[in-house]
Amino acid sequence: MLLRVGTRGSRLALTQAEQAAERLRRPGVEIALVPITTAGDRDRTRPFGEIGGRGVFVKELEEALLAGRIDVAVHSAKDLTATEVDGLAVGAYLPREDPRDALCGSDGLRPGMRIGTASVRRRAQLLALEPSLRVEPLRGNIDTRLRKRGERGLDAVVLAACGLDRLGLGAEIGYRFEPGEMLPEAGQGALAMQVRRGEELLVAAADDAETRRRVEAERRCVAVVGAGCLAPVAAHHDGDGLEGLVADEDGRWIERRRGDDPEALGRELASAASAHA
Q: Which of 36, 225, 240, 268 has the fewest CB atoms within 10 Å around its CB?
C-alpha cells in the first residue's frame, strides 16, 4: 500500500513530515512525501490576518486531501483552524514536544528592545511584559527569520521552540518563555495527521492519547472565543488544567482564565474581551 503524505515544502515542514512518516511505516506500507505550496508560503510579506488568518498554511493541503491527491496531511497543530473541515478529521496527534515560545538573540527581555514576530498573540504578550519594546512584523520560515534578525539589526526574534529543536537549532534559543509569561498558541508543539473522515485507521496507531486530550481542549476553547472575538487568543493545557487568554494587540489589557470545560472557558474569555470593547 502506498500512502501519499502531503506537507508544506519548507525545511521544517519536510522534517516534520518525515517524523510522521516514521510513525506510519510498517511492512507492506510505502510512504511518498508530496510537497504542496500554501497561501502562507506564496505570500510572505502581508500579515496573516490579511491573507486569511488561521488556516493560511493548511487550506491547500486540505483541498488535496478532499480531492484524493494525498492520503494524509501533516500539519503543525497550531496552524489548523479551530474547527474541523467537513469531510476531514485529525486521525492522529504525535506526542507533543516543547510548546513554549522561544526568544532568539537574547537571554531575556530588556526595555527598548526591537523584536521581530508575525504573531499578534506574541506581540500582545510581549508588550504586556515590557511596554517599551518595539515589536516589528517579521515573516518567513525559521532560517529566514533568523537571518533577517541580523540583516535588520533586531535584538531578538520570537519563534516556536519546538521548530528550532526539530531542526537542531536549539542553540539559537536564548530564553524559553514559560506559559505563565507567554501563553502558547493552541496546539503548539504538536504535529497533527489529517485524513478523510472514515479513514482514521490509516494513522490511528500513531495517535498519542494524552496529546489529543490536551490539544483538542485547546482547539475547542479557541473555537468558542473566535466565534465572536477578533482579539489575540491563546490556549494551553498543561496536563492539570486548561488556561486561555485574550488580549489587546498592543498589550494594554490581557485576560487570563483557567477552567476544566473548554466551551465554558471560551465563553468566559469572549465575555471578558467584550467588556474591553
A: 240
Helix (H) or strand (E) run with residue 73 in it = strand 72-76
- Which domains are delineated in the chain? 1-95+190-207 (3.40.190.10), 101-176 (3.40.190.10), 208-277 (3.30.160.40)
Exposed e or buried b per residue across 56-72, where buried means at least 16 C-beta atoms within 10 angstroms of its C-beta: bbbebbbbbbeeeebbb
65/195 Cα distance (integer angstroms): 7
Give CA–CA dist 275/260, Å, rounded.
23
Backbone angles phi, psi at 14, to 5 degrees: -65, -35
Q: Is 42's pLDDT higher than 70?
A: no
Residue type, 110: R
pLDDT-derived band at 235 (thresholds 50, 70, 90) equals: very high
pLDDT at 51: 42
Which of these is catalytic: 41, 43, 71, 79? 79
Q: Which of 142, 137, 136 is nearest to 170 (CA)?
A: 142
Amino acid 52: pLDDT: 47
Active-site residue, 79 included: yes
